Amino acid sequence: MKVAILAGGSGSRLAEETEIKPKPMVEIGGKPILWHIMMIYSYCGFKDFVIALGYKGEKIKEYFLTYCAFSSSLMVNLKNGEVTYLDQEKNCEQMDWRVQLIDTGLSTLTGGRIKRLAPYIGNETFMLTWGDGVADINLHKLLEFHRSHGKLATLTAVRPPARYGHLNIQGDKIEEFTEKPQLGEGWINGAFFVLEPGIFDYIEGDQTQWEKEPLEQLAKDGQLMAYRHTSFWQCMDTLREKYLLENYWRSGNAPWKIWG
Question: Domains of the chain by range and CATH?
Answer without folding.
Answer: 2-69+95-250 (3.90.550.10)
